[in-house]
User: Fold this.
Amino acid sequence: MVSRSVYKAAGIVEDTRGIAHRVAQISVSAIKQMPVLASKVGGCVSLGQGIPSFSTPDFIKEAVIDALRHDDAIGKYSLQPGIPELKVAIAKRLQREKKIPYINPETELFVSCGAMEALAASISAIVERGDEVILTSPNYSSHIEQILFAEGVPVFAPLIEEKGWQLDLHAIEKAISSKTKAILLCSPANPTGTIFAEQDLRAVAQLAIKHDLFLIADEAYDFLVYDDIPYFSLASMPEIKDRVLSFYSFSKIYCMTGWRVGYMYAPTRIIDQVLKVHDAFAICAPTISQYAALAALRETNGKDGKGDESIRALVQALRARRELTCQRLDRLTTLFSYQKPKGAYYIFPKILRSGMSSMELALALLNEAKVITVPGEGFGPTGEGHIRFSFGGTEDVINEAFNRIEQWAGTL
Amino acid sequence: MVSRSVYKAAGIVEDTRGIAHRVAQISVSAIKQMPVLASKVGGCVSLGQGIPSFSTPDFIKEAVIDALRHDDAIGKYSLQPGIPELKVAIAKRLQREKKIPYINPETELFVSCGAMEALAASISAIVERGDEVILTSPNYSSHIEQILFAEGVPVFAPLIEEKGWQLDLHAIEKAISSKTKAILLCSPANPTGTIFAEQDLRAVAQLAIKHDLFLIADEAYDFLVYDDIPYFSLASMPEIKDRVLSFYSFSKIYCMTGWRVGYMYAPTRIIDQVLKVHDAFAICAPTISQYAALAALRETNGKDGKGDESIRALVQALRARRELTCQRLDRLTTLFSYQKPKGAYYIFPKILRSGMSSMELALALLNEAKVITVPGEGFGPTGEGHIRFSFGGTEDVINEAFNRIEQWAGTL
Assistant:
């Protein structure tokens, strides 16, 4: 289900002599490869990788500048699980946002090189070769890579597109086998922007209890919910505290994608094991980025801090970009139909042009319209027939991209 | 050969229910765990983890401050393999230092979250379950973790202690089997400070050709050589260009341990595969750290740049610290004998006190003398009976640590 088309499109012939199966079987992520292809095309605008246009807020950058001038420790390794003060601030944030009575900052969380590092390390720590992990389809392609890397088997439970890409509980239950080790859910979801309903998440939690499974909750977009939709986090359920591994990032909420800092909350015994992988791959998260993260959390209290203000402004701007994106898609009804996203900054329209694969469309848009997008095929078996647009870019970028797409569509 | 004593010492009982073998089998690194234990003891001085006392040079920090104020891209993802300009600068550095005629910066290298990430990713990419990797003993414990993580089998070829911990070619050849996939060498070596002799490295290269093996060269300390000893890099041998994977770091050379930025040089086809792992674990190296790395290389020309000056000052200071460390060890001849290191900032003395394991000694020094060290047992089968001291700390720290050790020794 993971194709090699991007490689082929890039004219790359893979030579996997002597390469371990766990890596040879993984396809190169289209999300990361499209910008590389685009750099060869030149003059492209991007609805591709999820890099919002916003800069890291000034109050964070100024705190880092101050530390660069006055605190030598900023250039040195931190303790391997992270700066203790940052871990305390993270515990507070999670307790407040997820309504968790108490989190031990010393043992129940650690700071990682972005949520991705903690996710990859955790999946490697709990998935034995041949173990199955249930994912939604579509699902963020990196999770698929991470499961394959651990020599696990991704088993897909399709989302219900016509219900706004909500969970299909029946499909999830049907996917459970004696080899199932975990269920992985990403909410708000990438690439669909779904906020999974609380009742469905509670039902999945019951399935996990019943079948003794881990739950892997990628909540990197947990702050980014539109229309006052209620957001529910698996981390807030005490009855699954011993089996839920939750992942968070500073990348999206504070416009810090390049800083590579995130964190994980899980039972102590799991953190202990995942730290072994963290040690082998990363030693510690970048110390300077941990300083930035601490500056961000210090100004965030859930009410009126500079961090809260920047988050509110971000959500407001992205809501407007979502509206714009939907309006522009409404003018392309012969090409696309879509489910309006409720969170994150992705939309995953269905391609209505029959006979055109998602990769063909993405490459045509790249080469002919000079618009970067991500083909749906990499997001699981039901991703084909769709394309992912990010609306993280400015309104100008979004308008320019859709102008080009409209013009290109006119030539068909 | 990897014991769980540090965990035991910390009173941690591992609960590995549901944990994958690749991780459950790994022991927690004593290098990283000792500071955690020490934080509970309080008032310790450190000869432990390799964190030099020096700050990241001001010219690097100022370049980063300037970019924080004027370049929004510093907060965003870079291209996954690294900032193109940085890759060009890295290629230039390698060409100059390793006398390599040409390196393609686009395809033959990538920028990682420290050398460790690239090493772990590469070992995961080439080591299939059950494959053997030949290491020296002693050897840096993280390499052992990385091989175990890939479900490979570390096979140790002892170094010759009485010859200053040089390679034993016979032992390496004897260690080769039909399952051998690679030979891993770290020169200047951690924990022994050995500079492996050119003729021996050339002989190992011939073995690799003869038996069709990869060579993994961890050269994170390649700038740190004392006494004008000639340093030879496997990366400079054209006849093994298709099989050598070389790893470098900004951590030591520019006192940037906390920035988590390094790089890897290898055949294009290997880079292509390792980037899949990099994508699943890291996405990209921290962009801000890549800016710092670029600032460092811009001021380094092998002659009279600010970077060259800071490297020279660093080597000079560390040479003095090595002398001091050896002088202090010369006053402890009933406790230790040692081989004088020729590079890096580690010394690996033999423990002369019979019946005392390296862990017992390290814990006694921690709890009774309040000095952090690293027990030798984690560095491979012949590491036991030794202890690692880092002389990265200031002369004051080194003197204070040895004062305490002397006082403690007086109580025996």
